[in-house]
Every structure is written in structure tokens, then in C-alpha cells.
Specification:
By secondary structure, the protein is of the alpha+beta class. It has one domain: 4-Layer Sandwich (Deoxyribonuclease I, Chain A), CATH 3.60.10.10. The chain is 21% helix and 28% strand. It contains 5 helices and 7 strands. The chain has helices at residues 20-25, 28-32, 49-56, 94-97, 133-139, and strands at 12-16, 39-43, 61-65, 75-79, 85-87, 101-109, 115-123. The chain has a 4-stranded mixed beta sheet with strand order 1-2-4-3, covered by helices on one side. Strands 5-6-7 form a 3-stranded antiparallel beta sheet, with no helix packed on it. Strand 6 (101-109) and strand 7 (115-123) form a beta hairpin. The two termini are 27 Å apart.
């Protein structure tokens, strides 16, 4: 387990950046730095993998699902600790190239001090007009 996740709390932030380059031009790095985020999920990244790594910078493990269509969608998970497992596909072939789903498993410690697994997902579900709701509901099993 990484020392990044060996503390009494875990800070997760999620941000729909509406374009990662634009977000960084508008001060995202300055916003993120003092927040001591352990895991960051991003939606609407809209950038190639090399740019994502360049902007987020060193000290992060980055899982990025880039959309095949340039300038569209894209999701990412950036974490201080290396995930133990990652997935970018949830079944329907549409999602394999649409940049809409990534998930990562992390080893953490629960409130009682026992080792546990935490699964973090970054997903971008857009307008039903663009992708029929049935495509999502037939692919993802929602549980409580």
C-alpha cells in the first residue's frame, strides 16, 4: 500500500473539466495544489494521452480513456497511489472507443484499520439524445 493512502482520511475529487487544456489555462493547477487530493476523477477531458500526462504532471498515476473522436469526451483517474487493477471497458463495444468509462481498484484501510479495496469510477454519461439510455442501462448494472 502506498504511503499516499496510509492516513486517517482519503480525499477524492471529481471534476468535469470541459476540456483539460482549457481548465489548466483557467487555473486548475492552482486550484488543485492546496487541496491534497489523493484520487482525482476527470470527465470531458478532450485531450490526447500525452497532453493529459503533461498537464497533470509528475507524482500521479494516470488512467485515461481517450475518445476516438478528437475533441470529444474522455475520462481519467489520477491517483497518488498506484491502482492494483484498472478497467476501461464495460462490455458494449461502443464504450471501448468513446472515452466514457475508466475504473481503478485501490488498496486502502477501512475505519477499523483493516485492509480493504476501493473501486473508483470516472464516467461521462451525456445527453440521452446522443446515446440512447438503453445502451447504458443494458451495459451497467446499477446497485445500491
Amino acid at each position: 500500500m502506498s504511503s499516499a493512502l496510509k492516513k486517517d482520511h482519503l480525499r477524492i475529487a471529481t471534476v468535469n473539466v470541459n476540456g483539460l487544456r482549457a481548465a489548466y489555462k483557467k487555473g486548475m493547477a492552482e486550484w488543485l495544489a492546496p487541496r491534497e487530493v489523493d484520487i482525482l476523477t476527470l470527465q470531458e477531458v478532450r485531450a490526447p494521452d500525452a497532453i493529459v500526462h503533461q498537464l497533470i504532471g509528475e507524482g500521479w498515476h494516470i488512467l485515461h480513456a481517450e475518445a476516438e473522436a478528437k475533441g470529444r469526451a474522455g475520462v481519467a483517474i489520477a491517483s497518488r497511489a498506484e491502482p492494483v487493477a484498472t478497467r476501461t471497458h464495460i462490455g458494449d463495444d461502443y464504450f471501448a472507443t468513446a472515452g466514457r468509462w475508466v475504473e481503478a481498484d485501490f488498496r486502502v484501510t477501512d475505519a477499523a484499520g483493516n485492509p480493504a479495496q476501493l473501486t473508483v469510477v470516472s464516467a461521462y454519461v451525456h445527453s440521452v439524445r446522443q446515446t440512447p439510455r438503453s445502451r447504458w442501462t443494458s451495459t451497467v448494472s446499477w446497485t445500491s
